[in-house]
C-alpha cells in the first residue's frame, strides 16, 4: 500500500519504520525540518530500541519518502495515519491546534484528489473529536463528503515508548472505530495478520477506550505503589504480596469486577478496606487513591438516587435488597443504603428480594431485619408482581434470570426502569429502561 504518516514523533516514526519494513511505500510528513532530514538520511528522530537500524534499512531500501508538503503526500498515497501530538493544556483539556491545522491541510489536499482516500486518526483524542472536530474540517476544506469521497476512522495506538517496535508487532489488540466498511477492510488488510484480535467498533468507543486503558494502567501502578507503602510500614514483603495477588486469575487478574454496575458492599469489602485505611493512618502512610474508594462508592449510590428523584414520581418498586444476586446478606448492602435514602426523601417503596424473603421468615437475617432495619422489613412484599404493580419507577438490583423474565411480562411502557445490574436483554422490557452508568 502507499501510505502517508503525518507527525513523525514516537508514534509516527515507529509506524513509518514498521510499515516500510513490512513492504509498504511510506511517505513521512512533519513540520519539523530536522526530523525530515534525519529520516531522509536514514537516521531516527527518536531514541527507541531497534529504531535506528530499522530506519536505516528501510530508507536504504528506497521505501521511505519524507516531505513537508501535505498535498503531495495525500496525492501520492491512498491511506494516511495522523500521529500529531495532542498535549495537555494547563487545565487538562487537550490541545487540538496541531490536529485541527492538519485536518485543514488534509482537507485542502483532498480537494484536488479524484480517488477516495482513507484517514486514520492515531493521536489520542477525546471522544467526539474525530467526528465532530476533524470530520467537519476535512469536509469544509475539501468540499467532499465523508463516507463517500473519503473515509475517516480512529485507531487507538497501544505501543509503549522503549518497547515500541516489539509492541507494534505484538499489540494487545487492534481496535478500529469507523462508520464505513471500507475503512475496516483497508485496516484489516494492513493489520489483520498481527497475532491479536482485530476488533471493529464505533469511533466514540475506540476514542474512549484509549483513555480507559491508560487510566487503568495509571490506576494499577498507583494501587501497587500504595499497597507497597502499606506493606513497607507493616513489615510485609510488597513484591511477594503483589506477586501472589497476581496469581489469582479468577478474581484479581481477570474480567471480574470490571463491568460497570452498582456500588460494592457486603460484609467484607467495606470492612476490610476500612481496616486497611486504618492501618495506613496509624502508621502515617498516605494512600489517597485507596482512601478515595469508599467516597467514590457512596457517590455511585447517590447517582442512583439522583436518577430516581429526577423522575419526580413517588411510587417505587425495588427488586433486590442484598448486596448482590444469590445471597441474602444485607450487611452494608448498597441497596439498603439506596432504599434508606429513598425513604428519607418520602418515596413510597415496595421491595422484593426472593432470598431475603425466605431468610426473613426463617434465616440468619431475620434478627438483622427485625432489629437493625425494621423500617425496611415492613416494606418488603412477597412477589415481583406486587413490587412492580403500582410502581412508576422500578429499580432492578438483581440479575436473577427468573425475575428478569418476569419483568419482561410485568413492566408497562409508562414505567421507568433503573437498571443497576446490566440487564442483558433490556429490549425485552417494555418500560423506559436506563442503566445506572450506561
Ligand atoms: N508516545 C507514545 O508512546 C504514544 C502512545 C500511544 C498514543 N500516543 C498518542 O499519539 C500522538 C502522538 O504522540 P507522539 O508521542 O508520537 O507525539 P510527538 O510530540 O513525539 O510527535 C508529534 C509530531 O507531530 C508533528 N506535527 C505537528 N503538527 C504537524 C502537522 N501539521 N503536520 C505534520 N506533522 C506535525 C510534530 O512536529 C511532531 O514531530 C499523541 O496524541 C499521543 O497521545 C503516544
Care to describe what's here?
The protein folds into three domains: 2-201, NAD(P)-binding Rossmann-like Domain (Rossmann fold); 213-295, Rossmann fold (3-Layer(aba) Sandwich); 301-435, NAD(P)-binding Rossmann-like Domain (Rossmann fold). The chain is built from 19 helices and 13 strands. The chain has helices spanning 10-21, 33-40, 51-60, 70-76, 97-111, 129-142, 164-169, 181-191, 203-234, 238-247, 269-282, 288-291, 293-310, 334-344, 354-361, 365-371, 374-377, 384-389, 401-410; strands at 2-6, 25-29, 64-67, 79-82, 117-121, 150-154, 174-178, 198-201, 315-319, 348-352, 393-396, 416-419, 432-435. Strand 5, helix 6 and strand 6 (150-154) form a beta-alpha-beta unit. Helix 4 packs across helix 5 (97-111), helix 5 (97-111) packs parallel to helix 6 (129-142) and helix 9 crosses helix 10 (238-247). The two termini are 40 Å apart. Residues 6-12, 29-32, 35, 83-86, 98, 101-102, 123-124, 157, 159-161 line the site of nicotinamide-adenine-dinucleotide.
State which percent range the strand residues make up: 5-15%
Q: Please give the domain count.
A: 3
Molecules bound to protein: nicotinamide-adenine-dinucleotide
Biggest sheet strand order reads 3-2-1-4-5-6-7-8
Rounded to the nearest angstrom, the radius of gyration is 28 Å
Helix-strand category: alpha/beta
Mean pLDDT: 96
**What's the total number of strands?**
13
H/I helix tally: 19
CATH superfamily of the largest domain: NAD(P)-binding Rossmann-like Domain
Q: What is the CATH architecture assignment of the largest domain? A: 3-Layer(aba) Sandwich
CATH topology (level 3) name of the largest domain: Rossmann fold
CATH class of the largest domain: Alpha Beta
What distance separates the N and C termini? 40 Å
Amino acid at each position: 500500500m502507499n501510505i502517508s504518516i503525518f507527525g513523525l514523533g514516537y508514534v509516527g516514526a515507529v509506524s513509518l519504520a514498521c510499515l516500510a519494513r513490512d513492504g509498504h511505500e511510506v511517505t513521512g510528513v512533519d513540520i519539523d525540518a530536522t526530523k525530515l532530514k534525519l529520516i531522509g538520511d536514514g537516521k531516527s528522530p527518536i531514541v527507541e530500541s531497534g529504531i535506528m537500524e530499522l530506519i536505516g534499512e528501510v530508507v536504504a531500501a528506497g521505501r521511505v519518502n519524507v516531505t513537508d508538503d501535505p498535498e503531495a503526500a495525500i496525492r501520492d498515497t491512498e491511506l494516511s495515519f495522523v500521529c500529531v501530538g495532542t498535549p495537555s493544556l494547563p487545565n487538562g483539556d487537550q490541545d487540538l491546534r496541531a490536529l485541527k491545522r492538519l485536518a485543514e491541510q488534509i482537507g485542502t489536499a483532498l480537494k484536488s484528489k479524484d480517488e477516495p482516500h482513507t484517514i486514520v486518526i492515531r493521536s489520542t483524542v477525546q471522544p467526539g473529536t474525530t467526528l465532530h472536530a476533524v470530520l467537519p474540517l476535512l469536509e469544509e476544506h475539501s468540499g467532499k463528503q465523508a463516507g463517500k469521497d473519503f473515509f475517516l476512522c480512529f485507531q487507538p495506538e497501544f505501543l509503549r515508548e522503549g518497547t515500541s517496535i516489539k509492541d507494534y508487532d505484538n499489540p494487545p489488540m487492534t481496535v478500529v472505530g469507523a462508520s464505513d466498511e471500507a475503512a475496516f477492510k483497508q485496516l484489516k488488510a494492513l493489520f489483520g495478520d498481527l497475532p491479536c484480535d482485530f476488533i471493529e467498533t464505533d469511533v466514540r468507543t475506540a476514542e474512549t477506550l484509549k483513555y480507559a486503558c491508560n487510566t487503568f494502567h495509571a490506576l494499577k501502578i498507583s494501587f501497587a505503589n500504595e499497597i507497597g507503602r502499606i506493606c513497607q510500614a507493616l513489615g510485609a514483603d510488597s513484591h511477594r504480596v503483589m506477586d501472589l495477588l497476581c496469581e489469582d486469575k479468577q478474581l484479581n487478574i481477570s474480567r471480574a469486577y470490571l463491568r460497570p454496575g452498582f456500588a460494592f458492599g457486603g460484609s467484607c469489602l467495606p470492612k476490610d478496606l476500612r481496616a486497611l485505611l486504618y492501618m495506613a493512618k496509624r502508621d502515617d502512610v498516605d494512600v489517597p487513591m485507596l482512601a478515595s474508594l469508599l467516597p467514590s462508592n457512596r457517590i455511585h449510590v447517590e447517582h442512583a438516587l439522583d436518577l430516581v428523584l429526577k423522575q419526580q414520581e413517588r411510587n417505587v418498586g425495588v427488586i433486590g435488597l442484598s448486596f448482590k444476586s444469590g445471597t441474602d446478606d444485607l450487611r452494608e448492602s448498597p441497596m439498603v443504603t439506596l432504599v434508606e435514602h429513598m425513604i428519607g426523601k418520602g418515596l413510597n417503596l415496595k421491595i422484593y428480594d426472593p432470598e431475603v424473603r425466605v431468610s426473613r421468615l426463617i434465616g440468619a437475617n431475620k434478627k438483622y431485619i427485625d432489629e437493625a432495619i425494621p423500617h425496611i422489613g415492613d416494606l418488603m412484599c412477597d412477589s415481583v408482581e406486587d413490587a412492580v404493580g403500582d410502581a412508576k419507577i422500578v429499580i432492578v438490583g438483581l440479575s436473577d434470570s427468573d425475575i428478569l423474565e418476569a419483568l419482561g411480562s410485568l413492566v408497562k411502557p409508562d414505567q421507568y426502569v433503573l437498571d443497576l445490574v446490566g440487564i442483558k436483554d433490556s429490549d425485552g422490557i417494555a418500560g423506559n429502561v436506563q442503566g445506572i452508568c450506561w
